Amino acid sequence: MSTKPSKSLEVFDNPNKDIDYTIRIRTPEFTCLCPKTGQPDFAEILVEYVPNERCIELKSLKLYMWWFREEGAFHEAVTNKILNDIVEVTQPRFMRVTADFNVRGGVYTTVVAEHRDPKWTPPIKVELP
Predict the structure, then answer these.
(1) CATH code that applies to domain 11-116
(2) I need a labelling partner for 12 at 20 to 30 A (CA). Which of 35, 79, 85, 92 fits?
(3) What is the pTM of this model?
(4) Residue-wise pLDDT tens for the chain (129 aa)?
């Protein structure tokens, strides 16, 4: 088992390529550093996606998230980096990353970033009675 953070993200073949389904991954203990003060920022990161050909491997995602612990990053930048890095390796039909940061200086910050494959049409939501 690795005991070091890693920038490397691994994937595996989607076992259900023919259907749209949603994968939700919650990381409640995300940390990075404030680029101005060097103090730690704490957040919950939620990754939601509709996979296409590939899915993200969870252990590599955990080590990737750990990599940010010593990195200085603005909330907006780190949220979009996470989105872009995961999109690059998975090429999903749709992905949303929500970063819900804890209070800093009396201010809470939530950043939401999305990617949508232009060839993908989302399914129509079914409302049951």
Answers:
(1) 3.30.1130.10
(2) 79
(3) 0.93
(4) 567 899 999 999 999 999 999 999 999 999 999 999 999 999 999 999 999 999 999 999 999 999 999 999 999 999 999 999 999 999 999 999 999 999 988 889 999 999 999 999 998 989 999
